[in-house]
Input
Amino acid sequence: MIYCYIYSTTITLMLSTYFIVILKPAPITLTTRIIAWIIALTISSLFALTQYRVLELETPQQRKIKPALVWLTAIPYIGSVFQFYFTKHLAASIGRQLHENNRQQIKQPTLAIGLLYCVLSFIACVIGIIKYFSSSNYSTLNGWSFIFWLICFIIYWVRLGVFKRRIQQAQTQIAQA
Output
């Protein structure tokens, strides 16, 4: 739950910064913030669930990390660093499982986009912290980092889904054989 709160808060802050800087709409009301928080909470919960399910599909011998550890990314500050570790091991686990099932030589298929997602998320958090403690305005930089982060987040999530389906199909074929 904390994981979802942190990511939903980050997404909400980044979204509000983007809309304030780029689109310059009317002031955001409390109701709008609550709705944005609920949407962000839902999205981050579904993303964590996708990561969890991908790891659950893999055989225990091929897993480099336990599925329940996805929730450790919710710990403030430590979770940001752990996300790098988790992403690396998730990619390695997917690669090992694909190699076992299909004999494909893809070592870490989601590593590059996953690490880019982690780096951009970390940069956005650092910009947010600097902006909070500084009188300088980093809204434009935060808005652009959010746009790039969102693109990487969507691509990473889609790639996880693609490899999840590949693993499921391979396991179905093995079970039928």
